[in-house]
Specification:
It contains 1 helix and 11 strands; from the N terminus they run E-E-E-E-E-E-H-E-E-E-E-E. Strands 1-4-5-7-8-9-10-11 form an 8-stranded antiparallel beta barrel.
Length: 182
């Protein structure tokens, strides 16, 4: 597929961008009992995006502190931090590093990369929507994007222990990111 044109990416700006954790969200959802979704997020993360002259040469790297998981229920959060799930004592961070960017329609992209969770690295593809470029709160250039993917928790050694029978294997991950040019 061809590179999206400048007309398809209004305001496209090259540069290095730091993810603003105050105006961004790293969220997830998983089925519970096969009938409902439990949602959560991570509150402590950082990352860098580099937008290249050719958008398909752009890169992203992010780090998420696993102990910052929040589902709105402290008892559940404590369980998610145990070896049944994230094992935050042994694996304090999960990381994502892009390995390539592909066009997906006139203004959409897919970002291929490697997600490392619980010491296990697996390829993942993020469906990315570039929301735009503009001026940030401090007058610096800012960019916004949204992305999503699905992973299998068992692929990363997340067994869920006794809860395995009631917690789905598929985890949907959604990202809403605002980043400021550095």
């Amino acid at each position: 597929m061809s590179t999206p044109t400048e007309a398809a990416l209004p305001g496209y700006t090259t540069g290095t961008w730091a993810i603003d954790p105050i105006h961004s969200e790293v969220a997830f959802s998983v089925k519970h009992l096969g009938i409902a979704k439990v949602r959560g997020r991570f509150d402590d993360f950082e990352g860098q995006i580099v937008t290249a002259e050719n958008p398909l040469d752009s890169t992203v790297a992010a780090t998420i502190r696993t102990a910052s998981v929040s589902t709105g229920n402290e008892q559940r959060d404590e369980h998610v931090r145990t070896p049944d799930f994230l094992n935050v004592e042994e694996f304090a961070e999960m990381t994502f590093r892009s390995t390539g960017v592909r066009a997906n329609g006139s203004a959409g992209f897919q970002v291929d990369g490697e997600l490392t969770l619980r010491g296990v690295s697996r390829p993942v593809t993020l469906d990315l929507e570039l929301n735009g470029f503009g001026q940030g709160m401090e007058g610096k250039p800012a960019l916004g994007l949204s992305a999503s993917t699905e992973i299998s928790r068992s692929d990363f050694g997340v067994t869920a222990g006794p809860a395995s029978a009631v917690v789905g294997d598929t985890i949907k991950i959604t990202l809403d990111v605002e980043a400021n040019q550095v």
